[in-house]
Specification:
This protein has about 350 residues and is α/β, with parallel strands linked by helices. It folds into two domains: about 170 residues, NAD(P)-binding Rossmann-like Domain (Rossmann fold, 3-Layer(aba) Sandwich), CATH 3.40.50.720; about 160 residues, Dihydrodipicolinate Reductase, domain 2 (2-Layer Sandwich). The longest helix is centred in the C-terminal third of the chain and has 23 residues. It is globular, with a radius of gyration of 20 Å. A hairpin with a 3-residue loop joins strand 17 and strand 18. Helix 1 packs across helix 7 and helix 4 crosses helix 5. The strands form three sheets. A nine-stranded mixed beta sheet has the order 5-6-7-2-1-8-9-11-10. A seven-stranded mixed beta sheet has the order 13-14-12-15-18-17-16, covered by helices on one side. Helices cover about 25% and strands about 30% of the residues.
């Protein structure tokens, strides 16, 4: 049984979600029937066809009768500025605009629509936070508004959980080196109340606020107060990295540490490792939540470990949104069967 899917906000993540469904040949499971985006349909069509980071769309994209047609599938396009004004008739909606609160989203849960996936860490008002590959089995059919965390929490949480289970996390610190985003200007401009975010994204490394540690606490509450997180935007268009440093309760040597990282990759198909001397551009269009760089990871004095994690902050995260929607589709199918 296929689920009908709507996407609100068709920017970098929204377009990647649709493209992932096409590239993974999932339309028979997740049929995209509606997209809400303020941009004109001609611009929507063009930016889906031609992507500066991920290349040309692997299929046909046209406009027919004011609808977007992707590989022969017609998709309704709306241009509502207010989420509450949407007339949604689908099974699952993925909120990709970044501007819809859980409270506002919840008001759309009615009729056929039972689940809304929010593509950001969101607020405590969500019914649950789903990090696919880590806790999807905890989601229930009554969870209507679901946060899928952030690209960084999807990369970090499984690793922190593994290190805590194996060696005990006494304290830790994460530094995210994140590619530039659309809340930054290309040149210095009156762009944000955060004065650092008024500076050119392409000319500086820019510290920004992050609540990644709070996102970890949401799913690993026993670690609250033990982690600190910081983030710096860097002048690249895609692929980010996290350097995680952890003080361990139990002594660990390099062999046991590497085995633990390998075990995580073996147990979680969305985490992998690399031993090659790679740079960030080598991970463009990599669909893993995290790629652990073994040569750049280390053990210091038995109780301090450092891990470098790469991740395509667009493609990896979009694929986890698709996986989450697939999980809900399967729950819906089982509900229909019973």
């Amino acid at each position: 049984m296929s689920a009908q899917l709507a996407i609100n906000g068709f920017g970098r993540i929204g377009r990647s979600v649709l493209r992932a469904i096409v590239e993974r040949d999932l339309w028979h499971h997740l049929a995209v029937v509606s997209i809400n985006e303020l941009a004109p349909i001609e611009t929507i069509c063009h930016l889906l066809k031609y992507d500066s980071t991920h290349g040309r769309f692997p299929g046909s994209v046209t406009i027919e009768d004011s609808r977007l047609v992707v590989n022969g599938h017609a998709i309704d396009i709306t241009h509502e500025a207010e989420f509450s004004a949407l007339q949604i008739d689908c099974d699952v909606l993925i909120e990709c605009s970044g501007s819809v609160s859980a409270e506002v989203a919840r008001r759309q849960i009615r009729g056929r629509l039972k689940h809304i996936l929010i593509s950001n860490p969101s607020q405590p008002e969500v019914d649950c936070t789903l990090i696919y590959g880590f806790n999807q089995n905890q989601v229930t059919s009554s969870d209507g508004v679901i946060s899928c965390g952030s690209c960084t929490s999807n990369a970090l949480i499984p690793l922190v959980a593994e290190l805590d289970a194996q060696f005990g996390v006494v304290a830790g610190s994460s530094l995210t080196l994140h590619s530039a985003m659309n809340d930054q200007p290309v040149i210095d401009a009156y762009h944000d109340v955060d004065l650092r975010l008024t500076r050119s994204a392409m000319q500086s490394m820019i510290p920004v606020e992050t609540a990644l540690d709070k996102g970890v606490y949401r799913l690993l509450p026993h670690l609250e107060g033990r982690l600190n997180s910081s983030s710096i935007r860097v002048p690249t268009s895609n692929v980010s990295a996290i350097e995680l440093t952890v003080q361990t309760e139990h002594a660990v040597d390099r062999g046991a540490f590497t085995q633990s990282l390998q075990r995580l990759a073996d147990d979680n198909q969305y985490i992998t490792i690399t031993t090659e001397p790679l740079a960030s551009c080598d991970f463009i269009h990599d669909d893993h939540s995290a790629v652990i760089d073994i040569p750049q990871s280390a053990v210091v004095n038995d109780h301090l470990v450092k891990v470098l994690i790469w991740f395509d902050n667009e493609w990896g995260y979009a694929n986890r949104l698709v996986d989450s929607a697939l999980h809900l589709q399967q729950m819906i199918s089982l509900g229909e069967l019973t």
